[in-house]
Amino acid sequence: MKDSIPTPFELHVIAADIRQGRANPTDARRLIEMFCVCVDAELPFHRWLLLHLRDSFQCYLNDEKRSMGSAFGLKRRRGRPNVPEQRQLKFAVEVIRLRLTGMMHQEALEQVAERYGCAESVIGEAYSMQRLPAVAALRNERSNGFTDAEKATLHRILPKEAVSHTGKSNIKPV
Question: pTM of the predicted model, to two decimals?
């Protein structure tokens, strides 16, 4: 095998990425190589590997349009890959941090995109999907919460459904 043998946790993460269509083909290949090495050397292999192979075969059998390479994660899906939720949250937190300093939305998107080497559209989607959890995460980072000026900014930039009629945020700390 060219690369190191994945740990059971890595194996599980790679298999989950394959199921969700965002796996790195090199990692998918590592799993297949791992299986082949274990079979050839008559070594035991982890249950997660068998479950992954079963799921991949099942995916292939259930979808007539899907190739074996696609089912096993050896081919990338068309289009931009999905950004993992934790990374989206990180992007959204950074946008909100900049917005709380008074920066305009577009400028904050541009700066975060430049900092992380992503397209502005990726940052914008992340902000749109994760802005409320990002505010909660940012609030949890701060022992004293938000200043009055920051609260006013949050009320201005958050969607109306996130702010109750009393003017208090409906966002609860996580």
Answer: 0.53
